[in-house]
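ok new one. same drill as before - structure tokens go in, u give me an amino acid for every spot. 161 of them this time. try not to just spam alanines like last time pls lmao
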């Protein structure tokens, strides 16, 4: 299957001529989306608003998605749920503003929300991913998954962390 490279690219050019205070709400529903360079998301959903401000556009969004990952304790693959909520100010552009922590609206009016959503969702990715809070892990002696089986070493088991 060919990858769609910028599925979350959106044109905000038409906001330029809108009065301050003008806003639009958008909804995102995407069962499967790949965000360059490395993030495959499942069940991405969320909503966002663009509001015209004096300096540019204020983006406010909330998103949820799932990523394929592996449990650190039992090593089973599972889908980790991520969620994020953030704001970002897009300013009408001049190069000097890139020194600040603001995004500049490109001249063609297109911005790629994918990069933004990727960066914020990854902040929600825990370092120690576990499939469920009470995951029993694997037996360090014989390697059975203690969520599904027990073994003769159960008393001395060590939960891998
Ligand atoms: Zn687990
Ligand atoms: Zn065992």
């Amino acid at each position: 299957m060919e990858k769609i490279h910028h599925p979350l690219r959106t044109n905000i050019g038409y906001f330029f001529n809108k009065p301050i205070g003008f806003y639009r709400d958008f909804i995102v529903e995407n069962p499967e989306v790949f965000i360059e360079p490395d993030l495959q998301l499942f069940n991405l959903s969320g909503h966002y608003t663009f509001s015209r401000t004096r300096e540019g556009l204020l983006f406010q969004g909330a998103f949820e998605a799932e990523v394929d990952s592996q449990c650190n304790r039992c090593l089973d693959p599972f889908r980790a749920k991520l969620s994020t909520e953030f704001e970002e100010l897009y300013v009408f552009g001049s190069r000097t503003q890139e020194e600040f922590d603001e995004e500049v609206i490109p001249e063609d009016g297109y911005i790629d929300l994918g990069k933004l959503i990727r960066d914020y969702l990854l902040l929600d990715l825990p370092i120690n991913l576990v499939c469920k809070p009470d995951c029993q892990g694997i037996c360090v002696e014989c390697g059975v998954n203690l969520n599904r089986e027990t073994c003769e070493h159960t008393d001395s088991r060590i939960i891998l962390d």
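The CA atoms of residues 11 and 110 lie 4 Å apart. and btw The pocket of zinc ion (ligand 1) is lined by residues 71, 73-74, 76, 130-131, 135 (CB under 6 Å).
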